[in-house]
Specification:
With 137 residues, the protein is α+β, with helices and mostly antiparallel strands. The chain has 2 helices and 5 strands.
């Protein structure tokens, strides 16, 4: 039995030496990742001084449209070049000028026509109303 015990002890020593060997074991590497989020909160307090509100009218009156702008139709136009008269009428603000050829032809190039007359010379009328100019070639 002593032999068995000694043999068992020797066997245990031999096994422990073989198990460990001469190479040391390294511990596993552990990597730890940490995410940090910061939140900032700001509180702002403002002092506002309110002025008294203006009184509200009980019923607002409807807006009255402005009267149309008016202009005076030039009187001394006979013998003028139609292009020159057109520029003068545009400068006065007239928006709708109609050229009527005495011969019935279509008036295309104003610089080729001469003014023989104008409807309502010297009259004051709205600038948006048509002005009829009579021309000849």
């Amino acid at each position: 039995m002593k032999k068995e015990l000694a043999l068992t002890g020797l066997l245990c020593l031999a096994l422990s030496g073989c198990a460990g060997g001469n190479t040391p074991q390294t511990a596993p590497t552990v990597t730890e990742t940490m995410t940090v989020t910061e939140t900032a909160t700001a509180t702002v307090t403002a002092m506002v001084t309110a002025e008294p509100a203006a009184p509200v009218a009980a019923a607002a009156a409807p807006a009255v449209p402005a009267p149309p702008k008016r202009g005076v139709i030039p009187a001394a136009v006979q013998g003028m070049n139609a292009q020159a008269l057109d520029e003068d009428l545009a400068a006065l603000g007239f928006e709708n000028v109609i050229y009527n050829a005495d011969s019935g032809k279509t008036v295309l190039l104003l610089s080729n026509w001469t003014v023989t007359g104008i409807d309502n010379p010297g009259a004051k009328q709205p600038l948006s109303k048509a002005v009829v100019v009579h021309v000849t070639k």
